[in-house]
Amino acid sequence: MDLYEYQGKELFRRFGIPVSEGRLALTPDEARLAAEGLAGPVVVKAQVLTGGRGKAGGVKLAEGAKDAEEKARAILGLDINGHVVHKLWIERASEIAKEYYLSITFDRGVKRPLFMLTKQGGVDIEEVAATSPDALARLHVDALEGYQPYQGRRLVYAAGIDDPDEQKQILQIVGRLYGAFVGCDAMLCEINPLIVTPDGEVKALDSKFTVDDNALYKHPDIAAMRDTAAADPLETFAREKGVTYVKLDGNVGILGNGAGLAMSTVDVVAHVGGRPANFCDLGGGGSAQGVVDALEVITRDTQVRAIFFNIFGGITRCDEVARGILQALDEMDMSSYPLVVRLDGTNAEEGRRLLAEAARPNVHPEATMLDGARRAVELAG
Ligand code: GDP
Ligand code: MN
User: Fold this and answer.
1) 111, 176: one domain
2) Is 247 part of a structural domain of the chain?
3) Which residue's CA is the closest to the ligand 1 atom numbered 3?
4) Does residue 93 line the site of ligand 1, with CB under 6 A?
5) Which of 17, 112, 159, 227 is the most exposed place for a label (fewest CB within 10 A)?
6) How many structural domains are present in the chain?
7) Which CATH number characterizes residue 38's domain?
8) Atom of ligand 1 at shortest distance to CA of 56?
9) Are residues 84 and 126 in the same domain?
10) Ligand 2 centroid from CA 222, angstroms
11) Residues 80, 194 share a domain
12) 130-150 pLDDT, tens digit each
């Protein structure tokens, strides 16, 4: 789950990382009031779950309250990389002497958290990595041993930060960022830019914060930060139903049991010339109710013309899936959807028998994954 800048900064604050004071505003009026409260120059910042807001005109300095209201009017409703701005963060403006970059994420290759620090902040980090890789200091942390301050010192020196006062502050921020990363079960904590003010104060001017969805049950306060209005309504609906679902843009609805099989099914459908409408994993077990829920999600996508059930029974019993399909056909009007069903593995015979006995006109059994994919693509038209 990606957090908005203001939410990430709230977490930074909790972990002792310096940030500027700010307020949330949903309207130009609220922006004016927020700026009045902060007094003095402010920066009006679009809150959208994408980067590059500055370049897109989503970050503007304002002299005072009246100016903040005008800047807010200009930014609200703006489309930034496909994200429409509905929220603003009004922050006390900072003076900037230097812009650095600091992040921690997972390096999956070596299975360790990785810090990156460079004095060339503010710009795209990919650009720094490509044009001056030596300027980008890296530090892997052993997750069991934990972060050690001597490692942080090495990182700070490697980045070429030579002012002792900056070194001290950045070292502290690095340690606290590790605390935030582990403490929130984050997958990414990025500060770009990490600024140094003309007075030599170091603070986080931006935040990119991603928390592992699988750990959200441990962090109800972070889970509550989710903005359901901004999320894809179908994916939100799926989440509420407990269905693992990713929307794609084709017309063949796909339902597999297990993420690997569901992904292969997406591939095979594409391979035979079709366009998958979604990825949907029924999971292990595959109860009748689970099938009903998944079908409800898949059929909410108005582009879907045919649905391909690809089930390999291991823990999932094919008879249970067949019952689920039949139950779904009783509960929902599925008559406009051809359902191609391939059942194999545990209790496949029984499952196929149940479907054959029910003899629904829109259920098309196929023996193999490839045949099923071909049939579904053909029926989707
Ligand atoms: P991003 O473009 O989405 O990464 O948004 P940022 O929050 O990083 O802001 C983009 C740029 O706006 C920063 O790199 C700064 O140069 C500038 N900026 C943001 N906040 C302030 C501020 O308080 N004062 C000044 N002078 N510039 C700011
Ligand atoms: Mn930024």
Assistant:
1) yes
2) yes
3) 53
4) yes
5) 112
6) 3
7) 3.30.1490.20
8) 2
9) no
10) 21
11) no
12) 888 889 999 999 989 999 999
User: How far does the centroid of ligand 1 lie from the alpha carbon of residue 138, in Å?
Assistant: 24
Active site (annotated) includes residue 190: yes
Find the catalytic residue in 10, 190, 320, 366: 190
Task: Name the closest-CA residue to atom 6, ligand 1.
Answer: 206
**Domain that residue 25 falls in:** 21-92
Ligand 1, pocket-test mutation among 87, 196, 205, 209, most atoms within 8 A of CB = 205
The DSSP code sequence of 27-94 is SHHHHHHHHHHH-S-EEEEE--SSS-TTTTT-EEEESSHHHHHHHHHHHTT-EETTEE---EEEEE--
- The CATH number of whichever domain residue 237 belongs to comes to 3.40.50.261
Measured between alpha carbons, how far is 305 from 237 in angstroms, rounded to an integer?
20
Q: Dump pLDDT digits (tens) for 176-192.
A: 999 999 999 999 999 99
CB 299 within 8 A of CB 332: yes
Within this chain, do residues 202 and 268 fall inside the same structural domain, yes or no?
no
**pLDDT tens-digit series, residues 7-46:** 999 999 999 999 999 999 999 999 999 999 999 999 999 9
**Which of 4, 100, 101, 337 does the annotation list as catalytic?**
101
